[in-house]
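Continuing the series of single-chain predictions for the mutant panel. This is the parent chain; the variants come on the following pages.
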Amino acid sequence: MHLVAILFAILASQSDQKPEWCRDLPRPAYSKLERVTVADKWFEVYRIRPGLFAIYEPHQQEEIISYLIVGKKQALLFDTGMGISNIKKVVERLTTLPVSVMNSHTHNDHVSDNWRFSRIYGMDTAFTREHAKGTVAAAQEEIVPGAICGAPPAGFDPKTYSVKPFHITDWIHDGAKIDLGGRVLQVISTPGHTPDSISLWDAQNKLLFTGDMYYPGAIFLFRPETDLDAYEASIKKMSALGAVLLLPAHNVPVADPADLPRVLAAIKQARSGKMKPIKAEHWSEYKFDGFSFLLSK
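Parent structure:
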């Protein structure tokens, strides 16, 4: 039996022994949101606004959140999550309209169910093309002992878990607009976390989907593809949009736009060399009120 499968089986059999990261879940923010019942217990779905659903995966330590945005003629799924259970089935319960996919960026935890969809928008970058090829290693890292809270979904096979290759049908660039029918979404190129990172801007409702550029929690900025100069410039651009609500891709689906100026000031402070970080094996952590940065050592 594969070692990962053995370890995963042990974890599933000891589901009452919760990893530390999930012992305090649900997060308080969720008590104020309207929950929508779905059959698949891997997911929790919340209606944020009319025609806007947050699809949350609280049983994996990434606490990834994908968003279904519904117009009058079609719908857009912003990220497809971990691929540990079938997000497409959940989406089909929420809307009967045609659904396209767009990703905040192409790290594995945001694209793992892309392969289930026939129309996928992708940023025209080499990073995007490479990540559309799929990966085994990054997926397997997501199911090590301690990464799953409780038992996995029925039918999930850890031995074969991977990010399957997906086909991008529509290449997009900064400023591209997607008309869902009565609802127009604009692509805002916000590189920094990755070269292909985008934010999605609903100008009519002043909603900003931030992907991994900002969320309450530890923000990963230590990988080789991270560009801190670009990150600063992108946060400044996002802050200037005048959003009334931020919709992040991890931990909680609603955040205060006033956080963005604080993030900009914080990243400048962290990079200044005047602030002492908490050092770990792979990164240095700079802590602030409500969020932190994990930067390379």
